[in-house]
Amino acid sequence: MQSAVKQGKQNVFVQKSTDKTATIGMICLDAPPVNALSGDKGIPQAIAAAVQEFDADPAIKAIAIYAAGRFYSAGADIAEFRGNPATDAAPLRSLFEALDASQTPVVLAMHGVAFGGGLEVALAAHYRIAEAKTKLGLPEVSLGLLPGGGGTQRLPRLIAMDKAVEMIITGRPVSAAQALENGLVDALFDGDARAAVLDFATKIINENKPVRRSRDQEIAAFDPAIFDTTATKLAKTAHRNPGPMKALDCLREAAQGPFERSLTFEHRAFDALMEHPQTKGICHAFLGERTAVKIPGLEGQKTSRSMDSVAIIGAGTMGVGIALACMKAGLQTLLLDLKDEALERARANVERQLAGQVKKGRLSQDRADAQLALLTLSTSFADMGDADVIIEAVFEDLGVKESVFRQIDAIAKPGALLASNTSTLDVNLIAAFTNRPQDVVGLHFFSPANIMRLLEIIRADDTSADTLLASAEFARKIGKVGVVVGVCDGFVGNRIFEEYLRQAYLLLEEGATPEDIDGAMEQWGWAMGALKVMDLAGQDIGWAIRKRRKVEQPDRPYSTFPDQICELGWYGQKTGRGYYNYPEGVRGGATNPDVLPMLQAHSIALGLIRRTVTAEEVVERTLLAMINEGAKILEEGIAYRPVDIDVIYLNGYGFGRDRGGPMFQADLMGLKTVLARLEELSKGREGWALKPAAILYRMQEQGLSFADLNAGKTVQTDMQE
Ligand code: 3H9
Questions:
Q1: Are residues 342 and 267 in the same domain?
Q2: Chain segment 449-464, per-residue pLDDT in tens
Q3: CA of 509 to the centre of ligand 1 (A)
Q4: Is 43 in the pocket of ligand 1 (CB under 6 A)?
Q5: Dist. CA 418–CA 482, nearest whole Å
Q6: Ligand 1 mean position to 74 CA, how many Å?
Q7: Ligand 1 lined by 686 (C-beta under 6 Å)
Q8: Same-domain pairing of 587 and 564
Q9: Which of 311, 525, 535, 682 has CA atoms 20 to 30 A from the CA of 271?
């Protein structure tokens, strides 16, 4: 067999493979890391050109497409979705046209992952084969999109309509075995994709198989009721993600045909979604989560430390949550506490939580047992000497932390990662309790620590680069989104949350009810309104912070209304009463009828005439407060990039994924509007709290958006100018 007749562009390699029987045109996609079909890199264009060139060559009897690397393809390049559908989608669409036009049979081999546009290229090929472990999917709806490369039109021509609806509407991939069974692929293979595609192409030549275009196939008979029943199911979530319902419309059109007409319908629907602000928000979230975990200046570097065992000091709720997360990741987990009773309670809690997961079918009994076997409990601090990572999760008091860190310093092995789970204290002070401040970092988990994906990694002044890399690796290992931030009161998340809450409380005083506030936020996209969050977290925690603030920041007064709630002992869910009542069996809380009269009296005492507060006002004021504080955080260098703040809010605070995060929202509003609204509001009641951050003015002068800062542009200071 001869080969390597011709080599093509950078990420697409073409060659002819000739044996006794025939010549096959080979096209190999090689674009690490995920073989995304980047139009900017000319990938779909190069494949299309190769298909056309091979098709024009009478010696070539079949065209074979396959990919090199970890897997076949993750689909279109999401980073190139700039909201300009005419140009963003054009290169891929030309490739589908080239495949449809080919008079030479095209065979395509998939391995590992075949997603989105990648699978759509396969659907447009004439024969498809998949390596036995491949996952095949059209996950576009999870980005707020729909398969816009003919996927909604070709898939139901290859597999039954109900299966196509299921795959496209849920975005869930199918296994290679399922794909074979439902007719999505023609054969499975083991091993090398190049060899397999060559074999299959040789076979179709030998068997004289024809060109077989999916577009020409008939949709098999099905029950049309599937569209209405699916639409009813989707109606509940359509306001959060427009993709699935639009995809369903395209499938409905496919059933009407003809292909060309319904394909145009699909393209238009896809193009409209590309410009939809919620779709943009979801795509920003996807890429943001992969950006925010990278530490500027340390990209591509790895720690040499091992991260296989962890010791957690403090067996309270947080300690148990962290332990569960570590056990799930397969780490040897040692839970330490001074008291046997605390450890007994912790073990019972761990067992209860694992049993709960088994009962819900989320975990097998075997895996639960295996996780439990990783847990050791001890009252002896000496046992933590071998741990790779030590996490302190004790009472939030500097004196207590000092005593714990002095013991850690005495016992921990050299090179161990020493972490505090403090949410409020200065990590520099904590690091100074040890003789190895370079190894000390803050790891701020969010409750429940085994569920919430966010981990704020707090770099203190002396934290070494390798300690940051080790912390990022640890976060990745236990399935968290680890975002590095600097030291300040509340770090990034809680510092912004405080300003957001301040506005919610001011609005309560001005006329809103808790239901007005939470209803507006939840309708807009938050998983839970601010006041319900406080009821869930425990009002006493916020009360303690406000008492501290009163002393530390007397010039930044807080509403005293939440204090009145706390004085009554209404700490929220744990006491059965807070802003809401929590009777047995009522999920999410019921109206607390005593709150409104209390608010009315409070407003009178402040000399305020209560007014109607609209949902728009609630959303705008709280969001502007977040954006403004986020801007200050960037100005101070506490967060590296605006997208880090977005990712913190998406993963730790229930900010709606379709809303992309507060800084993304600022760009949607436009800096001019943000500044104008902040200036206006800063003239009003307690306006000091919304005085625009200086950086916002500089950004406006220099024509910069937050997206520009994410892309690496910097804001010039006056000194630099
Ligand atoms: C589409 O196809 C539209 C078409 O229907 C119509 C067109 C007309 N693009 O997740 P990982 C990057 S829409 C660009 O950490 P894993 C990612 O940012 C697309 N970049 O790896 C990261 O970058 P970095 C439909 C992408 O092994 C790196 O690759 N497709 C894309 O855990 C590694 O990613 C999807 O929705 C992309 N499509 O998981 C699939 N995908 O190196 C989305 C990844 O800078 N992707 N990157 O950190 C995935 O589900 C996972 O990435 C995958 C790999 C399972 C593929």
A1: no
A2: 999 999 999 999 999 9
A3: 46
A4: no
A5: 16
A6: 5
A7: no
A8: yes
A9: 525
List the strands of the sheet with 135-137, edge to edge: 113-115, 135-137, 174-175
- pLDDT of residue 133 exceeding 90, the answer is yes
Please compute the mean of the pLDDT values over residues 642-664 and round it to a whole number.
97
499: CA distance to ligand 1 center in Å? 35
Identify whether residues 266 and 315 lie together within a single domain.
no
219 and 234 fall within a common domain: yes
Query: Of 125, 103, 305, which is closest to residue 197 (Cα–Cα)?
Result: 125
- Distance (Å) of CA 375 to CA 13, 39, 336, 468, 614: 51, 49, 11, 26, 51
Query: Which atom number of ligand 1 is nearest to the Cα of residue 142?
Result: 36
Name the residue range of residue 71's domain.
12-275
Residue among 145, 147, 126, 144 nearest 136 (CA): 147
Which are the catalytic amino acids?
120, 140
CATH number of domain containing 394: 3.40.50.720
188 and 175 in contact (C-beta within 8 Å)?
A: no
- The mean pLDDT of 609-618, rounded to a whole number, is 98
Ligand 1 proximity of 116 Cβ (cutoff 6 Å): yes
Domain boundary among 464, 487, 510: 487
- Which residue minimizes the CA distance to atom 49 of ligand 1? 74
- pLDDT per residue over 301-342, tens digit each? 999 999 999 999 999 999 999 999 999 999 999 999 999 999
In this structure, the answer to whether residues 228 and 184 fall within a common structural domain is yes
Q: Are residues 238 and 120 part of one domain?
A: yes
Whether 242 lines ligand 1, by a CB cut-off of 6 Å, is: no
**How much is the pLDDT for 720?**
52
Decide which of 231, 250, 275 is a domain's last residue. 275
Ligand 1 neighbourhood includes 148 CB (under 6 angstroms): yes
The residue-averaged pLDDT of 197-212 equals 96
Ligand 1 mean position to 113 CA, how many Å?
Answer: 10
Check if 124 has its Cβ closer than 6 Å to any atom of ligand 1. no
pLDDT band at 550 (very low <50, low <70, confident <90, very high): confident
pLDDT the model gives residue 19: 80
**Could you tell me if residue 2 is inside a domain?**
no
Strands 12-18, 23-29: pairing kind? antiparallel
Token pair, residue 516, equals 């007005």
**Which atom of ligand 1 is nearest the CA belonging to 291?**
48
Which of 131-145, 350-364, 576-590, 637-651 has the lowest average pLDDT? 576-590
CATH of the domain at 157: 3.90.226.10
Q: Would the CB of 149 count as within 6 Å of ligand 1?
A: yes
Counting from 1 in the atom list of ligand 1, the atom nearest the Cα of 79 is 14
Mean pLDDT of 686-694: 96
The protein residue with its alpha carbon nearest to ligand 1, atom 52, reads 74
Q: How far is CA 38 from CA 242, 456, 717, in A?
A: 25, 33, 36
Nearest CA to ligand 1 atom 4: 117
Question: For position 3, what pLDDT does the model report?
Answer: 42
Residue 716 lies in a domain: no
477 lies in the same domain as 509: no
Q: Is residue 6 part of a domain?
A: no
Task: Give me ligand 1 centre to Cα 117, in Å.
Answer: 11
Q: State whether 122 and 253 are in the same domain.
A: yes
Tell me if residue 279 falls in helix, strand or coil. Answer: helix
Split into its structural domains, the chain has a count of: 3
